[in-house]
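Slide 14.
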Amino acid sequence: MGADGCLSVDHEPYYIGQAYAKQQVVLFVNASERSFDVWLGKEGVKRVPIKGLHGTEPMPLEQYVRVMKEEARSEERRLQLAHPTLRQLSLWA
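Slide 15: predicted structure.
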């Protein structure tokens, strides 16, 4: 966790609290509550809603696959922009 009490999950920022800055916390997915349960050692610290979820109802498989493909393409583009590579172009046309 950062010095400001924030952490990031899948590029989404979560504020846990200044009191927990620079400490190692564990996040458990609480699917039924659509949240993360934040723990420091054996102490439950906080529950934060998971950001970026799609809707409130389970989606049909076809829609889920479409969303996952879109997210994978977006992640690939993000990685390419973050880590550009050199490409050797052909000298002969």
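Speaker note: The radius of gyration is 19 Å.
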